């Protein structure tokens, strides 16, 4: 009877190597150990980083070339040390790939994408320096827990230009667009990594402890038998290592199409940043004008209340001296009550408009925002027809639809590449040695070309290609719809601008006439030929005329900024 007891232990060493141009090598390694016997237990440990992360690090651009101004803004909404203003200037575009011609899959040139910087804003009179105290909380995950942390303790007056600058610097939605752009650039580097070979090194250290036991009955000289047991142990240690190299020689156009699609995606995200900038400028201006209108309405309501209270005092005096009636006093009191209610409603509207603008600008929670007085922004130099053509030439939404069409075309090529041949070059070299025995060293290597061609896969690739063709058709229809929408936006803003300009002249004359009518009504009443009702009506008409004038001015400014947004290229 003989028993063999084996106790094995195994240690594997693994290296991963990624090569990126120019001349950078990333090597990661891991150690793992395992046992096959119940008496030995090893814990497996992996220290190998993800290959995509290593490729990202290996291909990353230098700090001077990658988001020098934008990197700080990703961790802080406003960099404390940054005094350079921002402006809505489009990013430097990547070289456009040829999506219609055939590209040589084996001669693809790899180059990193152009660095993208945060768009600068126009800065006037050191505005950025004066707005440093409006930096939001650097930690975006912070939430206030005490009432005093959200109590309004200060008021900050802002011009429209300063408000737009703050929006560009602080608004989280724009920061998300910048992060998505950086994400697409990383995806481009991932696609370019397919043009590089892969290296892998594997090492194994294996130990085996063999125990042999035997027992037998041995006859003795006196004719009896005796029981005899023998046990022997043998320790064997083997070391082996292997280097594997693989490179895709031909992919039927899959790699070229993937890189082209990634390049177009970067360009699409660049345009998306520009589009969100323009939308942010429009929304900020509209909310700024809302606050301006609310503040002006408070001023008008306050003046009307003061005039109504003065009229009430005069009416009571007339009643006291016997020249007035109780009816006149009651009407004056009703007018005062209505004026107070209008003032309260105007104050509520101002508070809502102020907090809406503060949210857009992402200012600290303890600050309140106020605006400068209402002034006309300027004039529009183009005709309606010129404005429409300018919008067609400048709006990024149209180019986005064309780029989306190109992306779908490249993705269609990727799907069809699955039906073409794939050619890979591979090589490996392996050495092994039994350390506990002499003369047990060996090595071998392999090198070759591996080709594969999928002859039939049920039509899945063709179906996916058809989906991409339909996406192309959808992008073309979206282009037409976007073009029609752009024209409508230009026409609507243009007509509103011209009507508001006419309303400004009309409302200005109406205010002058209403003021003159109020003065005459007061004189007629003092002379005894007018009534209290004439004064009340004149005061109400003056208030309405002043409100109409404010609305016409603010409406003109609002339609002007909407027309600028519709054109997309006029700051």
Automatic annotation (TrEMBL):
Coiled-coil region: 259-288, 329-356
Span list, region Disordered: 68-145
Keywords, sorted A to Z: Cell outer membrane, Coiled coil, Membrane, Transmembrane, Transmembrane beta strand, Transport
GO cellular component, one term: efflux pump complex
Keyword Lipid biosynthesis among record annotations: no
Molecular function as annotated in GO: efflux transmembrane transporter activity; porin activity
Pfam family, one: OEP
Tagged with keyword Transport: yes
InterPro entries given in the database record: OMP_efflux, TolC-like
Gene3D superfamilies on file: Outer membrane efflux proteins (OEP) (1.20.1600.10)
Cell compartment(s), UniProt: Cell outer membrane
Family per record: Belongs to the outer membrane factor (OMF) (TC 1.B.17) family.
Protein name, UniProt field: TolC family protein
Lineage: Bacteria, Bacillati, Cyanobacteriota, Cyanophyceae, Leptolyngbyales
């Amino acid at each position: 009877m003989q028993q063999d007891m084996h106790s094995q232990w195994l240690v594997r060493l693994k290296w991963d190597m990624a090569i990126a141009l120019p001349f950078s090598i990333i090597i990661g390694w891991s150690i793992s150990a395992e046992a096959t016997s119940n008496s030995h237990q090893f814990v497996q440990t992996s220290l190998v980083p993800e290959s995509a992360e290593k490729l990202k690090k290996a291909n990353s651009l230098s700090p001077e070339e990658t988001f020098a101004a934008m990197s700080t803004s990703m961790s802080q909404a406003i960099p404390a040390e940054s005094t350079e203003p921002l402006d809505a200037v489009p990013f430097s575009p990547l070289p456009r790939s040829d999506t219609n011609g055939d590209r040589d899959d084996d001669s693809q040139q790899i180059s990193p994408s152009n660095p993208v910087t945060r768009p600068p804003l126009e800065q006037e009179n050191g505005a950025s320096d004066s707005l440093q105290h409006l930096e939001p909380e650097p930690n975006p995950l912070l939430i206030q827990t005490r009432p005093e942390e959200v109590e309004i303790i200060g008021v900050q007056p802002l011009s429209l230009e300063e408000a737009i600058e703050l929006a560009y610097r602080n608004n989280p939605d724009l920061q998300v667009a910048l992060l998505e752009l950086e994400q697409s650039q990383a995806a481009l580097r991932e696609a370019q990594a397919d043009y590089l070979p892969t290296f892998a090194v594997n090492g194994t250290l294996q130990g085996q402890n063999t125990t042999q036991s035997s027992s037998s009955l041995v006859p003795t000289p006196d004719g009896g038998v005796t029981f005899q047991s023998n046990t022997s142990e043998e320790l064997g240690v083997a070391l082996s290592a292997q280097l594997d190299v693989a490179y895709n020689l031909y992919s039927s156009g899959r790699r070229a199409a993937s890189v082209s699609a990634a390049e177009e995606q970067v360009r699409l995200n660049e345009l998306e940043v520009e589009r969100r900038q323009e939308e942010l400028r429009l929304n900020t201006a509209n909310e700024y004008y809302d606050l301006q209108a609310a503040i002006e309405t408070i001023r008008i309501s306050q003046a009307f209340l003061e005039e109504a209270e003065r009229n009430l005092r005069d009416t009571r005096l007339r009643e006291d001296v016997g020249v007035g009636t109780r009816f006149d006093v009651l009407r004056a009191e009703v007018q005062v009550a209505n004026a107070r209610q209008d003032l309260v409603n105007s104050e509520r509207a101002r508070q809502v408009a102020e907090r809406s603008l503060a949210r857009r600008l992402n200012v600290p929670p303890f600050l309140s925002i106020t605006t400068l007085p209402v002034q006309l922004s300027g004039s529009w130099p183009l005709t309606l027809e010129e404005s429409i053509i300018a919008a067609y030439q400048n709006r990024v939404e149209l180019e986005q639809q064309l780029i989306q069409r190109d992306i779908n075309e490249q993705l269609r090529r990727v799907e069809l590449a699955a039906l073409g041949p794939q050619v890979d070059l591979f090589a490996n070299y392996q050495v092994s040695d039994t350390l506990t025995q002499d003369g047990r060293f060996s090595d071998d290597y392999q090198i070759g070309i591996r080709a594969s061609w999928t002859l039939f896969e049920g039509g899945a690739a063709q179906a996916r290609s058809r989906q991409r063709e339909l996406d192309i058709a959808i992008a073309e229809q979206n282009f037409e719809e976007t073009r029609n929408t752009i024209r409508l936006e230009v026409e609507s803003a243009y007509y509103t601008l011209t009507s508001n300009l006419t309303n400004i002249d009309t409302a200005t004359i109406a205010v002058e006439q209403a003021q003159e009518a109020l003065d005459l009504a007061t004189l007629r009443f003092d002379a005894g030929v007018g009534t209290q009702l004439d004064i009340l009506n004149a005061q109400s008409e003056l208030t309405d005329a002043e409100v109409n004038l404010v609305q016409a001015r603010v409406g003109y400014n609002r339609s002007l900024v909407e027309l600028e947004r519709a054109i997309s290229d006029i700051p």
